[in-house]
Structure prediction request, 420 residues.
Amino acid sequence: MENNPTDIKLQQGRIRQLLGKLGLILFGLLFGCLLAEMALRVAGYSYPEFYQPDQARGYALRPNMEGWYRKEGAAYIHINSDGLRDREHAKSKGPDTIRIAVIGDSYPEALPVPLEETFWSVMGGQLEQCDKFRGKKVEAIDFGVSGYGTAQELLTLRERVWSYSPDIVMLAVTTNNDISDNLRQLKKTDQIPYFSYRDGKLALDDSFKDTNTFRWRQSGLSRLGRWIRDHSRVIQAINQGHHGFKIWLAARRARNAQASSPGSGVESQTQNAGQASEELGVDNVIYREPRDATWNDAWNVTERLIELMRDEVQSRGAKFVVVTLTNGIQVYPDANVRQIFMKRLGVNDLFYPDNRIKRLAERENIPVITLAPEMQAYAEQNKVFLHGFDGNLGNGHWNQLGHRLAGEAIARHLCEAPLE
Prediction:
């Protein structure tokens, strides 16, 4: 049966109309995106991706990346050519220079504050004024990367630090998540390396390199996606919106689960220690002495990693020091708020992780600086928040005051006590 020419013309006309409408819709979308892109750029909106895949550590900072960081606080960030959140440093050390390599996670990385207000910058300036370092140039170099645990920090020491010939290696320990970051069962990701403690030895597990996710992140298509994200404020806004929605959704689910759970009271939480990580949150369980094999394993791995880092530093002729940082609740200025928190957890003080690391350091002859007690005393006496920004005071990372107090305290301890 032959097609009617009139019907064919009608069909072709409908197709042209449909294509015309689709073209107008596409043009409208593109024009709208262009206007949005221009508006976001005029407004100074920028959420660049500061991280990239790394064969040794899972991920690392992207060399020469720069842009505004506004997720917490606000600072313009520049990652130097060697992938450090720091100014440029020559690999060769200058005369009369003391180099301090600061290894840690988001606290030394310190994206919420300007570079000159980070605790290690403050520390360097303070050290040059004390007798022990007088006449020397103190050069603190920041190797911190958000989310790192002690395992990734040890690998950072091996992979990046030694080319700068440091005199002192400072391990900055964030107690609320560094210990849990060292165990897969608690960290709950397969995209980073771990160490396991078996038969008296630490063994590296870098199987993340063989996962499909890591391979995809290194693919050409993924790199193209990063390039587009780097250059499009609209894409950055969509990513931030998606990230914010996930955080909101997770918080809503947590509130609903707590409200509907008959075991959400203090008594039930204390009795069911085996489920503590789920009920209280991994970050809060750190204030309790371990009550199950998982947390014992996490602590054992962490302590052996610190000892191994000490051994490797000393074998290179450098000095090693551990600094335990603070968590928001530990230095909350209102003692009543701290007491309510401790009652909910069923603990008598909030310094268990700090004291445990201090005892390890004393047994192993490792110099240690414990910041939490003195910073808590300052916060309570002066009624000030050392963590958090704007409407989130008391939570999150150090603000400018927290960094300044920490830098001054570390410098004071280093000036007063010799490093063995």
In short: The mean pLDDT is 85. The longest helix spans residues 5-42.
